[in-house]
TrEMBL record, chain A:
A biological process from GO: spore germination
Organism listed in the record: Pontibacillus yanchengensis Y32
Name under which the protein is recorded: Uncharacterized protein
Annotated keywords: Germination, Membrane, Transmembrane, Transmembrane helix, Transport
Database matches in Pfam families: Spore_permease
Length: 366, 55
């Protein structure tokens, strides 16, 4: 019961899951390869990501939005199913540690005199509390806060429009389509293919018939925010500066001078980013706990909270030394890694569907 | 906690062993779960063959 969410809460969780790591990093990931055409890369990533998720949604609907872990067990049997579920959990666990790493990498830039461990502890403790409270609490908090944050995001984008210089987008496609495709490929893995993990929480949505519409709308919404920030970053700062900034979106906010009071608002963007990262980390934390609960065949998951928190904290410090290593790892490996997991899930859904149909036919003939 | 069944005990025990091993290894300067390295070993050559060496 504590995990039941509404379709609107699913919309906000998915949108923040997309915006999560990418809000500050998307211009860097796309701009470093596609330069002035980074906005084209982002559009390409959104469209491709949408198509990948349409296929997943189609299969999930056929399977009545059952829990992903149950579908995998049905598809492969008890032992192989547990092994596949473990692979999925390792991917989620790794992603969760990387996202916690994103938080402390960013906070160390904003406030360098505090140890990164401090931010990691706070973020993991919050995620543990959020996961223990359930998806319902996360959904409600997220729903209330997101409306405020999206208003600030839209206001920021509107205030940036007069500063956009169209010269910064030229020359179009100077290096051809290859860098554009590479930029799109890099962005595809980070928020869009990872979304396959959301299949684990579809089963908790109350009105299942609304999942498809709201989920696709949230992908379009999250993707549009990312595209808007890539366009703003290239248009205001230019591709040259975007490639050299660690967090281009954060620096972009420094350029807003609406009135004497409303300037240097970049920290507001920092607060928004930390909040969306919290949502992403808590969602991932809950998915891992649900997976462990499924494998352990237990009634609840609170017993796993502390050891999981310790493991995620340790892995956060073991995955990468700094943001440069993290960005290099993400851009070179993450899309293929998440695509492999995507294929594994899609294959599991297909096998689960075939087995369910065969079971249904046998029951009818018997 | 009092209602732990057999498979539940296994998962619970394995998770604690994994977490503590990882933690003790990290505090002694060892990476006992180098997943980032494993993933890079598998996927980096494919990425380079697709898009070339990073500039």
């Amino acid at each position: 019961m504590k995990n039941n969410i509404t379709h609107l809460q699913l919309f906000f969780i998915t949108a923040n899951f997309i915006i999560g790591s990418s809000l500050l990093l998307a211009p860097l990931i796309t701009g470093s390869v596609a330069h002035e055409d980074a906005w084209l890369s982002m559009i390409l990533a959104v469209v491709t990501g949408l198509l990948f998720n349409v296929l997943m949604l189609f299969l999930m609907k056929k399977l009545n939005y059952q829990s992903l872990f149950d579908i995998i067990d049905q598809a492969y049997g008890k032992w192989l199913g547990t092994l596949v579920n473990l692979v999925l959990l390792v991917f989620t666990f790794h992603l969760c540690a990387l996202v916690v790493g994103n938080t402390d990498d960013f906070m160390v830039v904003v406030k360098p005199d505090t140890a990164p461990y401090f931010y990691q502890f706070i973020m993991i403790a919050l995620a543990m509390y959020g996961a223990a409270s359930g998806l319902k609490s996360l959904g409600k908090t997220n729903e209330a806060m997101s409306l405020l944050f999206y208003t600030i995001i839209f206001l920021s984008i509107i205030l940036l429009i007069p500063k956009v210089e169209f010269q910064n987008f030229k020359p179009y496609l100077y290096h051809g389509w290859k860098p554009v495709i590479q930029g799109g490929y890099n962005s595809l893995g980070v928020p869009f293919l990872e979304l396959i993990l959301m299949t684990a929480i579809f089963t908790f949505v109350k009105e299942k018939n609304k999942i498809r519409r709201y989920y696709l709308m949230s992908i379009l919404f999250g993707g549009s925010i990312l595209t808007a920030f890539v366009v703003a970053a290239i248009g205001v700062e230019g591709a040259f500066m975007v490639q050299r900034e660690t967090y281009p979106t954060y620096s972009l906010m420094r350029d807003i001078h609406a009135t004497v009071v409303f300037e240097r608002i970049e920290i507001v963007m920092g607060v928004i980013w930390i909040f969306v990262l919290f949502v992403k980390i808590t969602t991932l934390f809950t998915i891992i706990l649900l997976g462990l609960q499924h494998i352990g065949r237990s009634n609840g998951y609170n017993a796993y909270l502390l050891p999981l928190g310790i493991a995620i904290w340790t892995l956060t410090n073991l995955t990468h030394e700094n943001i440069v290593e993290n960005a290099a790892f993400t851009s070179q490996n993450w899309t293929l890694y998440s695509f492999t997991i995507y294929l594994l899930v899609i294959l599991s859904l297909l096998i689960g569907l075939v087995k369910q149909k065969k079971g249904g036919q046998q029951q009818n003939s018997g | 906690m009092n209602n732990l069944n057999k498979s539940n005990k296994w998962v619970f025990g394995c998770l604690w062993v994994f977490s503590l091993t990882l933690l003790i290894g990290y505090s002694m300067g060892y990476n006992l779960f180098p997943i980032t390295k494993w993933i890079s070993t598998i996927f980096e050559p494919i990425h380079i063959s697709l898009f070339g060496e990073p500039k």
